[in-house]
Design brief:
6-stranded mixed sheet; alpha+beta; 3-stranded antiparallel sheet; 13 strands
């Protein structure tokens, strides 16, 4: 890659991209004086060792990711824009068979059945499919990550031996029938029933009203031969709550079996390579053995038994085994954001517009401050999300491999996944939209993928739990932990705690009160924000916000314990927005901590310096984003808030020369990006145009500009 200069220097030449897989650092000879303030004029600026950073970003399951990228680089695995609905669906189904042939789908399944028992590697590889086609990623997730995983984790050895071989080989395409038209996130309230008949030793499956139809199900409209169906299990007149059953759907000719019906969801806003549909059941009889009975069983006589006595805990344990969907969406969304930034930053480094600082040379888009402020903070957040996902994936693997599989570990995993999935899916959508706009009209062309990716990822904010519902679950966990700490505290103790959060332990203990209120700017932005560059100070500010918000909410909710159900519900509802915001602040803190912890693992000092700037851009960006809270709660003075804003502009300018290296380190080559505007074509066009005008000027035949002519006449009069 060609070294770029600062906007204040000579106009950029169109940079030549180095393949992401090449080794060696980009040695940036540029002096960092005007953009950093931290280096003297003779000190070379830090550079990014792209190969080293790229290897680091691959994480623990680098081999699985690289193997998946090899597969997704094959043209037959990639989306063809403009296909009809039926063509796209058939192509994705064919691609699933190619995945089977590649042996790419069995990592999470038992070794005795031909799998690898590699849960982390399975998710890492699966996430990478989003670069080929999000429809491929989600349809394969339905088959092996939901349908197959439900049999694996909710079933027992009989179900594994009987059903998993067909699922693994794709001989039995299947659906995951949990969601209903009338109940999405509220799974506990679904209307489908499975009533046990002891005379025939069968469950009778029914969807008793229209809202109980299973809906939005991948593989349901066309390809599904069977499904894992979630229903209220009823035996001997008692409803034992939601359980899962393996239910055949179609015969060998693709016709619905007796009592089974359905509809095609048809054309959607995205992900049209998946045959989503609806299912309904009318007295469909299922053998007793088809109950996935790891956590709850029914004897031949109809007696229910479970190793988990509490119905609520049993329900959440069952659903907790399926957390991998949220884990994979977190990683896939982050991968999509990386692709979007690769496209937009590459294009912004080549596309020229307006002769702002020259009479003859147009400026590169990424040299404009606004363009930097649009894209580089998103780049910082993407790095934070990537490092946080590695933490989540590691936790997932530890739980599902059995290394750390206690109730507390599973609760922590569920909370972490529920916290990070909303942030990464929203971030991917924001990034794709901003990248589209930053690429102008070219970004709107389907061939450059940004519009298609955004349409496909739109529903990721709803998949596997609506984002706001997930954050509410996180908030409840935070409040539960808080209340355990103060289970016997009276109102006075609670009030003192809130005061301490604002004024003592989290503030004065780290000098933040003095920092916020007693420091004079003295005309220097660098001096004004000097302390805020400290990771300890950033952590304290971000942590303080979370803890104070949780404490304030807990105080307001304390009367709920002694109120009627209606009043308690009203009290929770009146604090719902605050709860969700506290959970979001908690998730942002988790991302910041993951980024900060990741810095400790980078030994190359120049690369670490650049990534530290990027981490600061992310951390200070969070503080700027929530400046109103910090001002209202006295954590920052108005001058300090303004100084942060000014320093963020300086950070983006400082990071500008490293932007291409930072997206190169994501490791996606042209075969993964597949956007003509990121292929170097724009650089060729710009070079051709500049050469044309240069030759025209040198020829002496260039037409005279009217404005120049007017100036000449005015000066001679």
């Amino acid at each position: 890659m060609m070294v770029t200069t600062s906007p204040a220097s000579a106009p950029h030449e169109a940079p030549i991209r180095r393949p992401a897989s090449s080794g060696g650092a980009t040695k940036n000879s540029r002096v960092n004086g005007s953009t950093s303030g931290a280096f003297v004029a003779s000190t070379p600026a830090p550079t990014v060792d792209v190969a080293l950073l790229g290897e680091y970003l691959l994480g623990t399951w680098a081999e699985a990711r690289l193997e998946a990228r090899r597969v997704t680089a094959r043209p037959e695995m990639q989306r063809i824009e403009g296909q009809t609905l039926s063509e796209h669906r058939q192509r994705v189904l064919d691609q699933l068979h190619l995945l089977v042939a590649e042996g790419a789908v069995n990592k999470a399944f038992p070794t005795r059945l031909g799998g690898q028992d590699d849960h982390g590697g399975n998710i890492a590889g699966f996430e990478e499919l989003v670069t080929a086609d999000p429809s491929l990623q989600i349809k394969s997730g339905v088959q092996w990550g939901l349908f197959g995983a439900a049999v694996l984790h909710l079933g027992t050895e009989y179900h594994h031996n009987t059903f998993l071989p067909g699922i693994m080989s794709l001989a039995v395409p299947g659906a995951f029938a949990m969601t209903e038209t009338g109940h999405g996130s509220d799974v506990a309230s679904i209307g489908t029933t499975a009533t046990y008949d002891p005379e025939t030793q069968e469950f009778v499956l029914n969807t008793p009203f229209r809202g109980a139809w299973k809906d939005y199900l991948g593989n349901a409209a066309l390809h599904g031969i069977a499904a894992v169906v979630f229903a209220q299990l009823i035996t001997q007149g008692v409803n034992h709550g939601v359980h899962a059953l393996y239910v055949p759907l179609r015969d060998s000719d693709g016709a619905f079996l007796a009592g089974v019906g359905g509809e095609d969801d048809g054309l959607k806003g995205g992900l049209n390579g998946i045959d989503n549909g609806r299912l309904h059941f009318d007295d469909v009889r299922i053998p007793r053995a088809n109950l996935l009975n790891r956590y709850g069983d029914v004897s031949a006589e109809g007696v229910y038994s479970s190793s988990i006595a509490s119905p609520g805990r049993r329900f959440f344990t069952m659903l907790g085994t399926l957390v991998q969907g949220r884990v994979s969406l977190d990683g896939a969304s982050t991968a999509a954001a990386k692709i979007a930034l690769n496209i937009a930053i590459t294009y912004g480094s080549q596309r020229r517009q307006f002769t702002a600082g020259s009479d003859t040379n147009e400026e590169v888009l990424l040299d404009y401050q606004k363009h930097q402020s649009r894209l580089l903070p998103l780049l910082a957040t993407t790095y934070a999300a990537s490092f946080a996902h590695e933490v989540l994936l590691t936790k997932f693997d530890e739980v599902f491999s059995g290394k750390h599989d206690t109730d507390v570990d599973r609760q922590d995993l569920e909370t972490l996944a529920a916290a990070l999935k909303p942030l990464s899916t929203w971030h991917a959508l924001d990034t794709l939209q901003e990248a589209r706009e930053a690429c102008g009209g070219a970004g709107f062309l389907a061939e450059n993928r940004l519009t298609g990716l955004r349409a496909d990822l739109d529903v990721y904010a709803t998949f596997e739990g609506d984002n706001h519902v997930l954050l509410q679950l996180v908030a409840k966990r935070l409040l539960t932990d808080f209340n355990r700490k103060f289970a016997k505290a009276d109102a006075g103790v609670m009030a003192r705690y809130v005061v301490e959060q604002a004024a003592d332990r989290a503030v004065n203990g780290t000098g933040l009160r003095r920092l916020a209120q007693n420091v004079s700017d003295r005309g220097s932005v660098a001096r004004s924000v000097g302390q805020l560059q400290s990771s300890k100070v950033q952590r304290s500010l971000l942590t303080d916000r979370v803890e104070t918000m949780v404490a304030e909410i807990a105080t307001r909710l304390r009367p709920a314990a002694k109120s009627s159900k209606k009043k308690a519900a009203d009290l929770f509802n009146s604090n719902q927005n605050a709860m969700i915001e506290a959970a979001r602040a908690h998730a942002e803190l988790l991302q910041w901590e993951a980024f900060t912890d990741a810095l400790a693992g980078i030994d190359d000092a120049p690369t670490k310096a650049v990534l530290t700037w990027l981490r600061d851009l992310f951390g200070l960006g969070l503080i700027q984003k929530h400046a109103a809270w910090y001002l209202i709660h006295g954590r920052l003075s108005p001058k300090r808030a303004l100084a942060i804003e000014a320093y963020i502009d300086r950070l983006t300018l400082r990071l500008r020369p490293h932007a291409l290296d930072l997206v190169d380190a994501f490791g996606y080559g042209p075969e993964h990006v597949r956007a003509p505007i990121a292929s170097g074509a724009e650089a060729v066009r710009q070079t051709e145009a500049r050469e044309y005008y240069r030759a025209l000027r040198e020829s002496g035949t260039a037409p005279v500009d009217e404005k120049s002519l007017a100036k000449t006449k005015a000066s001679t009069n």
